[in-house]
């Protein structure tokens, strides 16, 4: 069965959104297979976001994702990688429709509440990195 890696980012944890986000995935019918609260070490943050190493926002991104606790999760179910991305909404919350997680809770591309793997291959890589 397909699995994906989802993470409530430090802004989502600070806004007390863990319960809401877990609930959305449960109500959708997905199964939580693993989860933990953690503070991401700098080297793990740089590895996780390695594809963005040369982007201008990389420094701010690593600074932000290590700025507080996150809630890392493994969710399982049919088409969960793609459906989690739909539930999250687009990377830039300005484009996110109400009803999506980013559309309901975020306004800033740099602080957009949640991460979800963008492909089954990314999911496998990210689950191995975090669990
Ligand atoms: N990001 C940013 N500025 C940008 C693009 C991305 O700060 O112009 C951040 C944003 O937090 C995003 C993360 O970098 O969630 C990873 O970017 P990606 O394109 O992988 O988006 P995602 O898969 O998270 O939607």
From TrEMBL:
The modification Phosphoserine is found at residue 122. It catalyses: a ribonucleoside 5'-diphosphate + ATP = a ribonucleoside 5'-triphosphate + ADP; a 2'-deoxyribonucleoside 5'-diphosphate + ATP = a 2'-deoxyribonucleoside 5'-triphosphate + ADP. Coiled coil: none annotated. One of its GO terms (biological process) is GTP biosynthetic process. The keyword Cell division does not apply. HAMAP family: NDP_kinase. This is Nucleoside diphosphate kinase.
């Amino acid at each position: 069965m397909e699995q994906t890696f989802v993470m409530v980012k430090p802004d989502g944890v600070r806004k007390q959104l863990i319960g809401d986000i877990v609930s959305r995935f449960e109500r959708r019918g997905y199964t939580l297979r693993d989860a933990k609260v953690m503070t991401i070490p700098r080297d793990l943050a740089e590895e996780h976001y390695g594809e963005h190493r040369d982007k201008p926002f990389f420094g701010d991104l690593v600074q932000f994702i290590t700025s507080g606790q996150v809630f890392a999760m493994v969710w399982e179910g049919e088409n969960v990688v793609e459906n989690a991305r739909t539930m999250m909404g687009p990377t830039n919350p300005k484009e996110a429709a109400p009803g999506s997680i980013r559309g309901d809770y975020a306004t800033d591309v740099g602080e957009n509440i949640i991460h979800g793997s963008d492909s089954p291959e990314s999911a496998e890589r990210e689950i191995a990195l975090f669990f």
